[in-house]
Hints:
Layout: E1 29-33, H1 37-49, E2 54-58, H2 61-70, E3 75-79, H3 88-98, E4 106-111, H4 116-123, E5 129-132, H5 137-153, H6 155-162, H7 166-179, H8 184-197, H9 201-214, H10 218-230, H11 234-247, H12 253-264, H13 268-281, H14 287-300, H15 303-316, H16 325-337, H17 341-354, H18 361-375, H19 379-395, H20 402-414, H21 418-429, H22 436-446, H23 462-487, H24 491-507, H25 512-527, H26 538-541
Helix pairs in contact: 6-7, 7-8, 8-9, 8-10, 9-10, 10-11, 11-12, 12-13, 13-14, 14-15, 14-22, 15-16, 16-17, 16-18, 17-18, 18-19, 18-20, 20-21, 21-24, 22-23, 23-24, 23-25, 24-25
Amino acid sequence: xxxxxxxxxxxxxxxxxxxxxxxxxxxxxxxxxxxxxxxxxxxxxxxxxxxxxxxxxxxxxxxxxxxxxxxxxxxxxxxxxxxxxxxxxxxxxxxxxxxxxxxxxxxxxxxxxxxxxxxxxxxxxxxxxxxxxxxxxxxxxxxxxxxxxxxxxxxxxxxxxxxxxxxxxxxxxxxxxxxxxxxxxxxxxxxxxxxxxxxxxxxxxxxxxxxxxxxxxxxxxxxxxxxxxxxxxxxxxxxxxxxxxxxxxxxxxxxxxxxxxxxxxxxxxxxxxxxxxxxxxxxxxxxxxxxxxxxxxxxxxxxxxxxxxxxxxxxxxxxxxxxxxxxxxxxxxxxxxxxxxxxxxxxxxxxxxxxxxxxxxxxxxxxxxxxxxxxxxxxxxxxxxxxxxxxxxxxxxxxxxxxxxxxxxxxxxxxxxxxxxxxxxxxxxxxxxxxxxxxxxxxxxxxxxxxxxxxxxxxxxxxxxxxxxxxxxxxxxxxxxxxxxxxxxxxxxxxxxxxxxxxxxxxxxxxxxxxxxxxxxxxxxxxxxxxxxxxxxxxxxx
Length: 542
C-alpha cells in the first residue's frame, strides 16, 4: 500500500501530487528549527510546496523551546546539530520529559549524516522519523505522510498514554488494530508497554512472543527480555539480552537493560561498561544514562568517574528543564572528598546561578555552600548556611528529594548536628523503594558488612565507624531528652521525646538501650498522667 493512502485505500491523507492551499497540511502548525537562516528558508519553501500554510522558524534550542511552550505545534522538523548547547536528540528528550510536545505531534529530525550510528542516535528518543539532507519535496511529503497517518490511526491510544491511562490505552490499542491493521505492530507495542506499566508482564510477554514467532524484531525481543526480568526469571532475561546484543549491537536499549542486571548482582564495572558502550554508539548520550553511570560509579567507589561524568551532565543541562540539584550536590561533595576545593567552590557558585529558579534550588545551593565552607575550614559560615537549609526544610519538607535529604543529613553530621541528621536518615531509611545509590549511602550508616573488633571503633571499617559513632550520639541524645522529661514534664517535651524514640527505634531497633528507653519513657508518662508509647518505626508513625 502506498504511504499516501489511508487505511481503507479510498482517500489520500496527503495527495500524491504536491498539496495545494487548503489541503491536509493547511490547518496544521509547523515549526522548522535550524541554526542556518538559508537552510531554514529552504526548508520552509519545501513545506510550502507540499501545502503547509502555517510555518514558523526557530534558530536555536532556546527559541524552539520558547515557541513550543507558547503554541501546540502539530509538526516539528528539527536539525540534529541545532546549536552548540543542545542537539535535536537532546531537545526531544527535554520536550518529552516536560510533556511540552503532545505525543500526537510529529517530531522529525533532519540530519546530513548518512552513517547508521547517527541514525541510531536520532532514533533513541523515538522521533517519528528522520530526514537525510538534502531532500526533495516528494521525500519530505512521504516522510510526513507516513508519520501523520500513524498518528491519526493511534491518536486515541496516544491521548490516553499522555495522561498515564494505561487501561484505556489498551482498549484503544485493540480498537486501532481492528480499524487500522496497517499499524498492528505499533499498536501491539504500545499495548505491551501499557501492560508492563500496569504490572502485568505475563500478558505482555505473550504479545512479544507472538511477534517474535513471525518476525524477530529487536524491540519485541527486548520487550520479551524485560518481561522475563519483571517475572524474576533473571537468567533467562540475561541470556536473551546477551543474544540480542550480539546480533544487534547497534540496538541501544539492551545495553541499559544489561547494565541494570549487572548492577543488581553487584557487577558494577560491567554495568558501567554497558552504559558507556551505549554512549559510544550514539552521537550524544542521554542525560539519564550519564546520571546512571555516575550513580553506579559512586556505589563502586570510583570517585573520578563520578566527577568526570557529572561534569558532562551539569554542562549539558544548563538552562534546561533537565537540570537537577542532585547533580551539582554530588559533584560538589565528590570534588571535596578528592580535596579539590577550588573546583568544588566553582561548581557551587555555578549552581547558585543555574538552579535559582527551580524547585529546591535555593535549598540545594545552601547545602553546597555549606560543604565548600567546611572544606575551607570556615565552620561558622558553614553552620549559617545549614541554619538556612533547616529553615527552608521546616517550611516545606516535601521539597527535598531523597538524595537532597541524604546530603543535608550528612552535612549536618559533619557539623555535629546529629539530632537533625538522625531524623532525616530515619525518614529516608524506611522507604520501600530507593535507588541503589541511596541504599548504598544508607548502608554506610546502618548496615556495614564487617563489625568492629572487640568493640573498638577505630579498628572498624569506615562504614562500621560511622554507624558506631552515629548510634552512640543517637542513643545519648535520646537518653538525655528522656531524663530531662523526668525532671520537667510537659506535653511539648513528651512529644519531642517520642520523636527521638521513633528515630532511634527506626535506626537501631535491636539496641537494648533503645528498648530500655521506651520502658523508661512509659514509666515517666504514667507517673505524670500521660499515655504509654510502644516501640514505633518512622514508617508506622507516618
